[in-house]
UniProtKB/TrEMBL annotation:
Composition bias, Polar residues: 41-57
SUPFAM superfamilies linked to this entry: PR-1-like
Organism: Staphylococcus nepalensis
The name this protein goes by in its record: Allergen V5/Tpx-1 related protein
Record's keyword terms, sorted: Membrane, Transmembrane, Transmembrane helix
Domain named SCP: residues: 238-340
Transmembrane region(s): 5-23
UniProt keyword annotation of Transmembrane helix present: yes
Phylogenetic classification of the source organism: Bacteria, Bacillati, Bacillota, Bacilli, Bacillales
Gene3D superfamilies: CAP
Length: 349
């Protein structure tokens, strides 16, 4: 009888431990680091083998992809002045155009359009469409998972991982590339970025090495224009709400008090040897600032060159997706600094 009681107690303790393990509050917010940065060249893509002969895709005839290579004035003459303009690194400049169910982030250099990111239910992204089944992309177009691009006389090898192929595959249309952003969970196209080889090299959304020297390319966050971070934060807010709109979740109101807390928390987190963003620190700061809330969470990303790839990486990470698209939240505030992107979500009282 005594042995039986001991066994029963042991089983109960084990059950309690398992319940605690699965249902205890999450103490740390995971930092989603760019998997394609500062990593050695990977093994060949398992699911998508490199083709010896790749058939060419048809030239783009309409849609925002045809903007690439054009003079900026041809765009502003048609759509008017941009809603927002800001300098980007290495002489690039970003122009944000917003219309009903259309969001365009146009990147230029010397007044020539180098890249167009587009999302929204009515965005003109031919020959694909926002909301299309992603599986159609692999049936309709030729895709090379290990393309080589040339910029200023130098050759660069790109390597798309299995995850890249499934969430941000790259398609070449003559001299223009299309980065197809895919919601893997719903098998839907949720965004497209058309860009030339120079922009592709500058943004580095995939693993990239120089073909001859086999060197890794690193970021230097001290060499960015002073207004870039503040504008990248606004872009972070905007595309977050664009993703929520696509998923029929209510858009979030920007709370500047949350932005101040995000800035403070980021400063404290990166001022230590081990960067950590904890739930306890976040809730404590919210209480100190007398911000009433029912629930809160936070997304953090690191070492992404630009916002679209970060947002779509969050969308394809279960824990980050659940926070970004959660219908109970109604306010957000964030910070962009030193390669970190952080955004706080709250459900207010």
């Amino acid at each position: 009888m005594k042995k039986l009681i001991i066994k029963v107690i042991g089983v109960l303790l084990l059950i309690c431990f398992i319940i605690y393990l699965f249902y205890s509050p999450r103490l740390k917010f995971d930092v989603l680091e760019n998997p394609n940065k500062d990593t050695p060249k990977t093994t060949q893509n398992k699911d998508f083998q490199k083709q010896k002969t790749t058939s060419e895709n048809p030239k783009l005839e309409k849609g925002v992809g045809t903007w690439v290579g054009q003079d900026l004035h041809s765009l502003t003459d048609k759509y008017g002045q941009a809603d927002r303009v800001y300098s980007y690194k290495k002489g690039f400049k970003n122009y944000v155009f917003k219309q009903k169910d259309q969001y365009y982030l146009v990147t230029t250099r010397k007044n020539k359009i180098k890249s167009v990111y587009a999302t929204g239910k009515n965005a003109s992204v031919n020959p694909v469409e926002i909301g299309d089944k992603a599986s159609n992309v692999f049936e309709k177009f030729s895709i090379n998972p290990e393309p080589t691009i040339k910029v200023d006389g130098k050759a660069y090898e790109l390597e798309l991982s299995d995850a890249d192929m499934k969430t941000q595959t790259l398609i070449k249309f003559n001299d223009v590339y299309a980065q197809i952003y895919i919601d893997q969970q719903d098998n839907e196209i949720v965004g497209v970025r058309y860009l030339d080889s120079e922009a592709l090299m500058a943004f580095k959304p995939y693993q990239m090495i120089t073909a001859k020297e086999d060197k890794k390319v690193k970021n230097n966050y001290k060499e960015i224009p002073y207004e870039q971070n503040a504008n990248q934060l606004m872009t972070l807010y905007e595309i977050t709400n664009e993703m929520r709109a696509l998923k029929d979740a209510k858009t979030l109101k920007v709370n500047n008090d949350l932005a101040h807390i995000a800035s403070y928390n980021l400063y404290e987190a990166i001022d230590t040897d081990s960067v950590e963003f904890t739930e306890e620190a976040l809730k404590q700061k919210l209480d100190e600032q007398n911000i009433s809330f029912v629930s809160t969470s936070q997304n953090v990303g690191y070492d992404f060159n630009e916002v679209p790839t970060l947002i779509h990486s969050w969308l394809n990470s279960d824990i980050h997706r659940s926070r970004m698209l959660n219908s109970k939240y109604n306010e957000m505030g964030g910070e962009v600094s030193n390669g970190y992107y952080t955004i706080i979500f709250i459900e207010d009282k």
